[in-house]
Design goal:
Elements: H1 4-38, H2 46-64, E1 81-88, E2 101-106, E3 112-116, E4 121-125, E5 130-136
Antiparallel strand pairs: 1-5, 2-3, 3-4, 4-5
């Protein structure tokens, strides 16, 4: 009979190996797709082709999610977020941060980036009286560029 601790360890290793294999398979598929599409641009450098293909991939992703941008505006991918709220506050109606403050970054413009124990991410402009707060999906970055 196998020891339960050894069984759990073996199961964990098998799950990790499965995750690694899926990641490698996804990378191989992406590389094959890139190579096939690169033949469409024979007079471009490798770097130019990669940029073109990355841009195409981003556009396809946005279009597949129902997002179509026909403006000159550049939109940042915030798909790591689970939800987002825009808030206003003043002396009579102060902003109450949900959860205990854990991490804070202040920028030269006076903006505060804050992460709390309730897993809320905040961007606050104290001088202007507004804030944004959001939660991210599991395993996604709290703050993106």
């Amino acid at each position: 009979m196998i020891d339960p601790k050894k069984h759990n360890t073996l199961c964990e290793k098998a799950r990790e190996n499965d995750r690694i294999m899926r990641t490698e398979a996804e990378q191989i598929y992406r590389n094959n797709t890139l190579c096939a599409r690169a033949t469409l641009y024979p007079n471009r450098t490798h770097e130019e082709v990669i940029k073109i293909l990355d841009d195409m991939e981003k556009k396809e992703k946005k279009n597949s999610e129902g997002f179509i941008n026909e403006t000159e505006l550049e939109f940042k991918d915030i798909s790591s977020e689970k939800e987002r709220e825009y808030l206003q506050f003043d002396v009579d109606h102060p902003l109450v941060i949900e959860g205990e403050p854990l991490y804070l970054n202040t920028s030269n413009s006076g903006g505060h980036r804050l992460y709390t124990s309730a897993k809320w991410c905040y961007y606050v402009q104290p001088r202007e009286g507004w804030a944004i707060r959001w939660k991210v999906k599991e395993g996604q970055p709290s703050f993106v560029k």
